[in-house]
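=== Structure Prediction Worksheet ===
Name of assembly: unnamed complex
Input type: mixed (protein and possibly other molecules)
Chain count: two
Listed entries:
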Amino acid sequence: MHDIAEKVVSMASGCDYADVRIENVTGDSIILKNGDPITVGVTRNTGMCIRILVKGSLGISFTNDFSNKAMKEAVDRAVKLAKSSANIVKNPVHMSKETPVKGKFSVKEKRKLLDVTVQEKMGELISLDKTLVSTNLNFATRFFDLSTECREKYYCNSEGSRISSYTPRLGLFCLVSVKSTDTEQRMEQFGNSGGWEFFNKWDLHNKLVEEAKMLAKLPSMPSMKKEIMDVVLSPELVGIASHESCGHPYEADRILGREAANAGGSFVTKKSIGTRIGSKIVNLVDDPTVKDSYGFYLYDDEGVKARKRYLIKGGMINELLQNRETAVDFGVKSNASSRANSWAAEPIVRMANTFVEPGDHTFEEIIDVKKGVYIKSYMEWNIDDKRFNQRYVGLEAYEIKNGSLEGLVKRPALEITTPAFWAAVDAVGKDFELIVGNCGKGEPMQSIPVGFGGPHIRLHNVMLG
Amino acid sequence: MNLISFATKNGADDVAIETIRREASQIKFSNSSVNVGQNWLVTRHNVFVSVKNATASSTFQGLTEQQLSAAIKSLIFAAKKSNPSTEYSGLANGPFKYKAVNGVYDKNVVDYDSAHVVEIALDASAENSKTAAGFFYKEVSERNVQTSSGADAAEKKTELQLSIRAFNEQNESGHAVSCSRMLKGFDPEGAGSRAGETAKLAKNPVSGKPGKYDIIFAPMAIGNLLSRVGEFSTAFNIDSGFSCFGEKVGKQVASNIVNINDNGRLQNGFNSSHFDDEGVPTKITSIIRNGVLKTYLHNTSSARKHKTKTTANAGIISQRYNNLILEPGKVSKEKLFAGVDNGLFVTNVWYTRFQSYYAGDFSTIPRDGIFVIKNGVIAGSVNNVRITENIMRMLLNISGLSNRTECVQWWEEISPPVYTPYALIKDVNVTLPTM
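=== Predicted Assembly ===
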């Protein structure tokens, strides 16, 4: 990898800037549907991304042909493409000045993912499925998709940065449908960066059985009336709200309009930094360096060293997510937010692990309200393309009366603006949990592993229906 | 090396290999300025094997011939170590005779000037809007499928896609696309104009009001929901729990004016091909006829499980629609509007998410131009609204369709493409954020 990347950078020596990212991915996936092993997927995927900058015009080539001729042609194509559209480049692209780094990171695996056989992985899924079936609940469907990947990367640029990394990841997607008077469904994901040891840490047998029992009860539970009340949100809800209504609108490329065609823009503007968005107890960060996390990395895909970013500090908009291109527009340095989901995709501004920092309340203190609802999980959610108008519909949710959890309630819906959401936070728990997901952005679409979460929080006096 | 023979000699019972060589380029722009030009020159092999009904599949990219043979051996090893699937029942038996689909390859696309296309679209949008964002993508590809059951098919494809979103002041935007396999039929100027005109029309939006509305959905808006209908129609999604169409074949799932087909052979169809991933010749499949669900979309294995025939919609593991077509109605778009006294016109939606796939309960967010219709004419622009509904209820409430279809595909919101007219749906539930 190293020699090839160096060679390609030298081929682009006539450009103002060049970088090369080579990735080699090995992995597998298993789908188990209603107890039936549908297929085993095997991944062997290698290729490179070559970026060049010529007089403010950015050109990128992607190729998986590593011959000298093909690589030279790829460089030439990137240059040609950059030059061909130079007369429609009204806002020239520049890269922020960053100190070149030589770095290396490798995520440790107590048990290497590649050492775990397909038989063992399949066996774990079948065992999980049998556990669900043994509950004698009426399952309409049970769907599991387990995937593992080991991603090697080598990055080098014309300024002298050289970074190699190895990141193993494992993830599980589940959809369980339980039929009683109606059919209710729970969709969730588990994931970590690391080795096979995490599979058992997910405590899947207990968690999925409890959730299936809840799904069986849900159809006969009362629906919510529209009413103003206190709402307690679990780390899962806090996580999705942090991701959607804070992480996304704080992406500097969205603010600049670069993703406006598809992923959309942002209600945040350049002038928003330093303005209040939430109550004083809200501290919300995006941090790629969280050990074992699904969104983990130590250097981004532009070779910048990763660090924790305080998006909201004391309720104030504090910092945006920047790559080297957007940082120039904002007059700041990159904070290492540049990620691509594969060698065949351009690096753009992305989240890593987005979460509310823990506060000082116990769960008992948080639910200590006269009347409210505790939303533990959700299915339906969405948000507008400025990240202002959002909706989360509870799946597992409980009525709160005089500080104690009562029975399940069906489908409480929180439909609220972003400022109203974060301003309503009046209690932040001392617990913490990271959930995982795959975030979509870019054109072509790039789905990328991320974490999101936080502690339990309470929203005071919000409309729930 | 013959990879099919190599795989069978190394222990595979069934083998299917799809090889795709893709040369593509894209120019992405925002604020009416080019951000980046990207190009891909990529070869990939999608390999499927079965051993005693245990299956394994893979996409291999960037491997030398030696590495590819080693990867195929590892795939066969994975299948041997896996458990047999009760659902897998072999590949379609070939060989097949193929009839070419017209209008899927245009040699003139190869040298088509991408930067000029972007300029044309931007100029057209600029007549009515301040800035625009989007992309132009062109692709020339070769694809072939060979199977151990005798299928052997090959095709050359071209495609052109422009997506442009025009903006004026805050919340004043319009989005349009042009998708074509051939230069003839590709209309970047028209897309730029439509996006700009919608942005202009969306002037000074005010907050919408919750309630029940008769809504006219433009092709990009109804296309988003129809794309879900297409996904919900595949046997894989039915069996996995990602659909509300389970056990609904033969039942009324839409109003009787609704006829939905999948057509893999559509001339200049944006996702047309004369064979599916098993090498089976593609065809026209009626999914919904007069509002009644007629069939799911199948490959060979799912068809055997459901005691029917393949509809040539493989994916070998899961099926997909090719070109989903909602047949047009008989009235003009103008007449459709004339029939609405008090309603909304939604030009686009995004972020469609389901609370329950089984029940079909979902919400989606209108974006770009959202208009009030009073007495058949547009009477203002609104924003901040959400459609909170049930997809089956909406299909049953379709009461009018215009007489001309448009091809729409954008991002993950509508893909593969949908061909649809404007649709009038009665009594649609609209909600707003309450704080």
